[in-house]
Design goal:
The protein is mostly helical. The protein is built from six helices and three strands; from the N terminus they run ααβααββαα. The chain starts with 15 loop residues before the first helix and ends with a helix.
Amino acid sequence: MTDTASSHDDELSIPAPHRELLDQVLDKWSLSVLSELCEGPRRFNELRRAIPSVTQKSLTATLRRLERNGIIEREVVSSRPVAVEYRVAPLGKTMRPPVDVLLTWVRTYMPQIEKARASFDAR
């Protein structure tokens, strides 16, 4: 990786708005929610059951962030009682290929990462 202080064309530079967006869509809960919604639309309580470690407050905040960024859509379902259903928006579907690349990278290099961690922790 290049030094971000240098002025090379291949410099890794992440402007603040891009960093904020990446933080919002690639955090722990967002990836879990997107993983569930890629399987199909889900209601709030279905998501809570599917991701048992998420709190109601965190799930609500995550869903709002993803909806605000156009990654998911929220639809009020006319039923008794009225329910809300979430689904991946067309823009959110475009995230699948880059996320798959990252997951492939993790699977490929996890043994090396675990070795590096063990070496670091042994110091």
